[in-house]
Amino acid sequence: MLDLVIIGAGPAGLSAADAAADAGLDYLVLEKGTIANTIRQYPVGRALFSTPNELEMREGTLKPLREKPTREELLSHYIHFVLERDLNINTAERVVDVSGDIEQGFYITTNCAEYHAARVLFAIGAMDIPRRLNVPGEELEKVHHLFVEPYAYVRKDALVVGGGNSAAEAALFLSEEGARTTLAIWREDWENRDPKAGAMKHWVRTPLEAEVTAGRLNVVLSKQIDEITEDAVRLTTDTGESLTLANDVVFVLVGSEADLTMLKSLGVRTEAGKLTEVPVYDPETYETNVRGVYVAGHFTHARHIKAAIDVPRQIVPLIAKDLALTSSR
Ligand SMILES: Cc1cc2nc3c(=O)[nH]c(=O)nc-3n(C[C@H](O)[C@H](O)[C@H](O)COP(=O)(O)OP(=O)(O)OC[C@H]3O[C@@H](n4cnc5c(N)ncnc54)[C@H](O)[C@@H]3O)c2cc1C
Fold first, then answer.
1. Does the first or last residue of the chain, that is N or C, have fewer Cβ atoms within 10 Å of its Cβ?
2. Which CATH number covers residue 215?
3. According to the model, what pLDDT value does residue 240 have?
4. pLDDT surpasses 70 at 248
5. Ligand 1 pocket, Cβ-based, cut-off 6 angstroms
6. Number of CB atoms found within 10 A of residue 225's CB
7. What is the number of structural domains in the chain?
């Protein structure tokens, strides 16, 4: 039986693996995609909002060319950390079920194998379920719920739907790279200037507004998207008019949520968080109401990368201590 299975190899899972190795635990990380899968899905070339000290696995080891690292620099940092530390990570292995309890141990089923572990740490992030508009045509192949790169859309009619940084950045990158871009955004999001209330960051808004002023980017204050067809999108504007836009590609970037199904089936309670539903856990140990089941990272109340790295460093030694106590009984 393993001491600890960690689900997810994002910053939280990697930090937990590092701490588990330090504590001498027999651990394994199971990752459905690649190392730092969420960061690999950021737009190509995107600079992080955070500074190296908030992102790096060891002080002074992330050395970007500019003040803030790009997606590529951060990815490479995490990958090299895994290689140098020789962390136990199985990639392309999705956890599909977790059962059991602290007495008998937990049974972790993946698409490849089954594992038995004394403790389980969920570090699954909050990207699994992209929010949808639920409008006719959203299932068309040209509609995406993730934006990674603009280069396929030069001189195409692109629509981005959403009011946060991801939507604003996608609209900016598309417009800068020659797509005829429209951003459909609610008035309250467009007029929101309060970063604490989720307003887009000023270093996104400033170039975005420059694109609008230059006449390259169209911003539509919209109430709702009504229908997406092969070559158009019909929407209702803020003032109630119906507008039909020529369209080749749509990016629906209205947020995402964690998939809490496995936690719930284990009996973990959840509560309403600031943005989404979050598991209930002890703020010191991050253990849920189900003994032996822990959570860390983006789908808890501690949403940023710095916390995703710091929390496992605090809780994995506690898990190791708890395991040592249990085995000495
Ligand atoms: C475009 C964008 C820009 C961002 N910029 C910043 C920024 O500048 N600064 C910042 O602090 N934060 C930023 N964030 C948020 C940041 O990405 C998260 O805080 C961070 O990824 C959290 O790390 P995590 O390990 O908790 O989750 P994640 O990095 O999401 O890792 C979770 C991992 O779990 C895996 N997983 C999920 N379910 C399963 C399963 N069933 N089986 C196996 N594996 C599974 C996923 O594939 C994923 O690799 C940004 C987010 C986005 C989308």
1. C
2. 3.50.50.60
3. 97
4. yes
5. 7-13, 30-33, 37-38, 42, 48-50, 94-95, 123-125, 127-128, 166, 297-298, 303-305, 308
6. 21
7. 2
Nearest to 118 by CA among 131, 128, 108: 108
Domain end point (choices 195, 223, 252): 252
Residues 143 and 208 occupy one common structural domain: yes
Structural domain that includes position 201: 132-252
CA distance 29 to 301: 22
H-helix or E-strand spanning residue 158: strand 157-161
Q: Are residues 123 and 262 in the same domain?
A: yes
- The 10s digit of each residue's pLDDT in 311-328 is 999 999 999 999 998 877
Residues 248 and 270 in one domain: no
Atom in ligand 1 nearest the alpha carbon of residue 35: 49
Are 297 and 125 in contact by the 8 Å Cβ rule? The answer is yes
Q: What is the mean pLDDT of residues 118-134?
A: 97
Mean pLDDT of 96-106: 98
Query: Do 217 and 318 fall into the same domain?
Result: no
Q: Do 105 and 138 share a domain, yes or no?
A: no
Rounded to a whole number of angstroms, the CA Rg of the chain reads 22
How far apart are the CA of 83 and the centre of ligand 1, in A?
A: 20
